[in-house]
Amino acid sequence: MSYFTRYQDHLGSRPDKFYKATLFQSPRLLLGLNCLEPGQVQAVHDHADQDKFYLVMEGQGEFVVGEATQTAGAGGVVWAPAGVPHGVRNTGAVRLVIVMGIAPSP
Fold this sequence. Notes:
By secondary structure, this protein is mainly β. The protein has strands at about 20-25, 30-35, 40-45, 50-60, 60-65, 70-75, 75-80, 85-90, 95-100.
């Protein structure tokens, strides 16, 4: 197993929905990459027993966490506690690249 990677080596796109890639996974943490082309959406959803974070690497998006909505760009970090609905829409003109982390389901 490699302990090192570059998120840029995992970038991708899909015309029908946002692109996802797994960077690392263990029984305690999943670290993934989400790429949303302009206008693409990760629908609002929740994880009953899992906290989640998003770290914006490129682009900008409109994030929903519970009742709050805020735009975040490169360097922005968004926290979605377990059970709180969350989602994101790429509101920019370029690809939105997010590194996300979530604890695997118990």
